[in-house]
Design a protein that fits this description.
single chain, 403 residues, mainly alpha, 3-stranded antiparallel sheet, 12% strand, elongated, disordered N terminus
Length: 403
């Protein structure tokens, strides 16, 4: 065995020539350097097993070559994988996403198909390095003849998927390190929230009066439910005796041709129980009466198999695109065409904070994972509250000190 290690080391050190090469990624040509070394000998044929190492500079390749030789000598060497990135992404998506939601798997596969495989799919795993991945990320930010430049958020999503897949490859022993770890991602600019203020909320409620979806919009506005949560709310989750709503499911369409709408777990898999204002619970009672009238009118045509609170006049689930289209018509009529359905949720959160709810209560009602996340999203509101608090304290000081 020692003799075999010496052979390997000698062969590797004797193959120290570093060659300059080029590779084209997404239409751009990049220069890199490559060196070859002997990993060992095939036990069947006795022939040398040759491996290559690449990098963006001669110095980087020399360091990698030295590390490979050192690991051969110490017995810690891991043979590079012969799979391409595209082949591994297919394997990973098929076999290592068992605990991931169906919709998330569909989103991952779409990103792999449209971004990762076209950019990196043909590259062998053993040749993938940080510079190539960084070049791929940078190329995504530039327009081409057949696509617009990707946003920083898209690049971040691509990175997240590629990083997870390559981290599994490291755990499997297919590659020695994860080349995405050292990559620099573009900064994602946070969009300023545009919730409805008090005056706009009044205008919105007036404009929605008498609309078929009035109760849906109003209840969403005063509970902070997400779109899928509101559309997936079922009557068995509404407790009129206690005045609470258990939010445990969301309505989602299957991500496949001819996919059906069904109830699935929440975004973070954590059900939450909220206690809306009594007026909101009365709106739900009104909705129950309204739905009963629809059922009586529809007769045998009525069908509400999911026991949904919000349905069409025949008991079927509401279509998200229809809900959003009608919402946009209403907000356009009050001078807020930029408002999104999700802004009803933001409006609820801001109103809660301004009315004096503590951040932990708001976090729980919104279903955020942590209070820190809630603070990050609505920090501008808490700053205004701090200013108001400082003003009240100053008034108190003025009173006791006769200032």
């Amino acid at each position: 065995m020692p003799q075999s290690k010496n052979k390997n080391s000698k062969a590797a050190s004797g193959m120290g020539n570093i060659r300059k090469k080029t590779r084209t990624v997404n239409g751009k040509t990049y220069i890199y350097y490559e060196a070859r070394y002997t990993e060992g000998f095939d036990p069947g044929t006795g022939k040398q097993i040759q491996r290559s190492i690449s990098g963006k500079s001669q110095k980087e390749v020399a360091q990698k070559l030295k590390a490979a030789i050192s690991s051969l000598d110490s017995g810690t060497y891991i043979a590079p994988s012969k799979m391409t990135v595209g082949e591994w992404m297919d394997v990973w998506a098929k076999q290592y996403l068992g605990g991931v939601k169906e919709s998330t798997v569909a989103a991952y596969n779409a990103t792999i198909r449209t971004h990762i495989k076209p950019g990196l799919g043909a590259i062998r795993m053993d040749a993938l390095d940080t510079h190539l991945v960084q070049s791929f990320y940078n190329a995504l930010r530039e327009p081409t003849n057949d696509r617009a430049p990707s946003s920083p958020k898209t690049v971040k999503n691509v990175h997240g998927i590629l990083h997870k897949a390559l981290q599994q490859a490291v755990a499997n022993g297919y590659i020695r390190f994860n080349p995405t770890n050292a990559c620099i991602l573009p900064r994602v600019e946070k969009k300023e929230l545009q919730p409805l203020d008090e005056a706009e909320t009044k205008l919105f409620l007036d404009a929605a009066k008498g609309h078929p979806l009035e109760l849906l919009y109003t209840i969403t506005l005063f509970t902070g439910m997400r779109e899928g949560e509101a559309l997936g709310l079922t009557w068995d989750r509404v407790d009129f005796m206690r005045g609470t709503i258990l939010i445990s499911k969301q309505l989602q369409k299957e991500k496949k041709p001819g996919g059906q709408f069904r109830l699935v777990s929440l975004k973070n898999d954590k059900p939450r129980r909220i206690m809306p204002a009594p007026w909101v619970m009365q709106l739900l009672r009104n909705r129950k009466l309204q739905q009963y009238e629809h059922k009586e009118k529809a007769g045998a045509a009525w069908s509400n198999p999911l026991n949904l609170v919000f349905t069409n006049e025949l008991g079927g689930n509401l279509i998200p695109q229809t809900v959003v289209r009608n919402f946009k018509e209403i907000v356009a009529a009050i001078g807020r065409p930029d408002a999104r359905f999700h802004d009803l949720r933001h409006s609820y959160a801001v109103a809660s904070l301004r009315s004096g709810d503590d951040i932990k209560t708001v976090q729980g009602n919104l279903g955020h994972a942590t209070a820190a996340f809630t603070l990050d999203v609505y920090g501008h509101v808490t700053y205004q509250m701090q200013e108001a608090s400082a003003g009240r304290m100053q008034a108190y000081i003025n009173d006791i000190l006769n200032l």
